[in-house]
Amino acid sequence: MRELKIAAVVVAFSLLTYYLVEPYAHHEMHKKVDAHGVEIKLESHGFTYDGTDDIAEAERKGDSALVDKKKAFWAEVSEVAKLKGDAVAGEAGFAMCMGCHTGANVNMGGVIPPSLDHAGRIYDKNYLIALIKDPAMASNVDHKYVDTMMHPMGSIKSMMSDNQQIADVVAYMLEKKAAEVTPKEAFAEACVRCHAVRYTKTTQLGETPVFKQEKEALAYQIKVLDEQDAVKGYMGTLPPDLSMIIRARGEHFMETFIENPQGQLAGTSMPRVGLNHEGYEKVKEYLTEAGDPSKKAREALGPWVLGFFVIFALLAFLWKKYQWRELH
Amino acid sequence: MAHFEKANSLNEWLDQRIGLNTLKRVLNTEYWIPKDINFLWAMGMVLAATFGLLVISGIFLLMYYKPDTNLAFDSVNYTIMSEVGYGWLWRHIHGVGASIVFLIIYIHMFTGIYYGSYKRGRELIWLSGMALFVAFSAEAFSGYMLPWGQMSYWAGMVITNLFSGGSLEAYGLVEWIRGDYVPGDAFLTRFFMLHVLLIPLVIIGLIVLHFGTLRLPHVNNQEGADIDFEEAAALYKAGKKKESKVIPFSPVFLSKDVFVMGVYFILFFYLVFYNFDFAMDPVNFDPADGLKTPAHIYPEWYFLWSYEILRPFGKDAGLIAFGIAQIALFFLPFIDRSPNVAPAHKRGLFVVWFWVLVIDMIVLTAMGKLPPTDPTFALIGQIAAWTFLALGPVLVLITMFEKKIGKGV
């Protein structure tokens, strides 16, 4: 039938145009290439951390000393991971962590040390080990600290250097700091020290309380500005507000970026956060609630509207048949 | 003054005062449309329906939108998207509608070109249609500024910069358009005015004109046949519907339109609910930041072909080529020298010309978005731009030598 042939031509050209300006163009625009023009495929590793990306990055830089350093570091992390940790023995070690990770809003060396209440639940085990061994290496931001600057958590290296002790502390967190976590808690612990979310009234100091007096609100606002200045001083720029990030970045970007910020944004001062799969899902849920709260309503209403128009089109087809019955 | 009698029904009452029955006859039941048409003839009504959706969704959005650089982004992304009941639905309809309306416009235009529907008395249909295309483009661009995201800001920056005229360096004109040195509050409020008042008024006026230009020359048909509408209408009215070459607009033609619209709305709402990123660029969900230029600045897909004609040349040559591309299609009825009103496949070389035009515009569209830093893409873009510019003179040549098709074909 002629009409169907014409429709096929129209649809084919429309789809071709769509393919070229959407999937294909976006792939070409965002693709990463190494110095030789070879495409670097960024893939998610399912939120597990073994230094694969870090070593590959060092290799691309052609810095063999760095490659060796990274390999040795992640090899040692995997050795520690094999040790059987003793949660009871780890409690004492964890007490050292609590010296800084108090849960109080006190900035230390640039950021507020995050609460560790659910550290064993939302972070990957390997990452926790790596972080205690060498925070800058674990977060893949060691390039920031090559000169005189020290990672704010850098002193942990001298405080906790014994592999068995690290294994014990991590075992303690995995056992005792692993209670059920809400999206809000996961986000607060993993992201809020740097990122505000104005759509949920959250700043670097956490959720903004309600004040009765304007004076108090303004005083609080000054505290927020001071904290933001401190973060800005440490990070180089104020990390972006994440209110709309869920719609501003695609799923693939979010996954690979959170696993390893350097992969998507080479040189960024954002550290790897070390979320495991559950932690990522919770954070994503929180960000979706903030930036795309209508997602559920959209998905619930969609089938009804489409169903309506399918019936509409069928009825219209019958009406057309009826109107045209005597014409040919 | 006319003689008025007591009316026995509302219909009669209205008929006495505004000639309701005459209106119905002239606009509906005796507005004759050729029978030999396909679904592409429904695109006009599909466009009208999409414009209707845009107006209605726009009215709802207008109730909550705030044209202020400090408030605009959050009024759209927070207030409308999460606080207003079904605000997200109206916004998605508006965003997807604005993009998909251009797909239909392009299909509508290519249909007109393929069937030669801009010739022999139908020139004004084409010209008013092109004017609508320009008005819709201005409407789309001004609307794109309003959410005040990164793409709004930077597209506004790039496009207004074009008015500096290359080497003319008319920065005074650019500042006059922006009302500031860079896009700011004055810029946003004036584009808001253009988007919600001036341009919609122009569009509505042009739609009326476009419909008006159709009435006397009548709609073309699949074979470009020269129909004696009065004779055919008389046959139809006499009950010889099979023999007649025409049908009334309402309800016969309309029934087909409505069916096509139904199919179209399935696609439309699929996009609204499940696949809207193509129409609502993720980059625009980052708030405008004059200190942070996005890695890639590109217009929405429907402007890409003309953007790509600007890009591969030098500053001044590019602007001139861009200028030509913007107005070239207006001249189609006058540079097509052929006497034939017939579908392209019956017009010899013209059919080749037509498909080259379609493919060239798709290539330009693709290259307009791909990074020009890649030498292959830049070269393809340049060839496609030259091809587009050459297609005008080539059309004059091939249509001058086109053989006249005998009557009755």
CATH level 1 name of the largest domain in chain B: Mainly Alpha
Structural class of the secondary elements of chain A?
A: mainly alpha
Regions with little confidence, pLDDT below 50 for 5+ residues of chain B:
none
Can you tell me the residue ranges of chain A where pLDDT is under 50 for at least 5 consecutive residues? none
Keywords:
heterodimer; A: 328 residues; mainly alpha; two-stranded antiparallel sheet; 16 helices; 4 strands; 2% strand; B: 409 residues; Cytochrome Bc1 Complex, Chain C; Helix Hairpins; 2 domains; two-stranded antiparallel ribbon; 2 strands; 64% helix; globular
Written account of the structure:
The complex is a heterodimer of chains A (328) and B (409). Chain A has helices at 2-30, 52-61, 64-82, 87-97, 119-122, 125-133, 135-138, 156-159, 163-176, 183-190, 214-235, 245-248, 251-259, 261-264, 277-291, 295-323; strands at residues 32-33, 39-40, 202-203, 206-207. In chain A, α2 (52-61) runs antiparallel to α3. In chain A, the strands form two sheets. In chain A, strands 1-2 form a two-stranded antiparallel sheet. Chain A has a two-stranded antiparallel sheet with strand order 3-4. Helices cover 59% and strands 2% of the residues of chain A. Chain A has one domain (47-291). The longest helix of chain B is centred in the middle third of the chain and has 31 residues, at 185-215. Chain B is an all-alpha fold and 409 residues long. A two-stranded antiparallel sheet of chain B has the order 1-2. The model of chain B has no long low-confidence stretch (mean pLDDT 94). Chain B has 16 helices and two strands. Classes of the chains: A mainly alpha (328), B mainly alpha (409). At the A-B interface, α1, α12 and α16 of A face α4, α5, α11 and α15 of B.
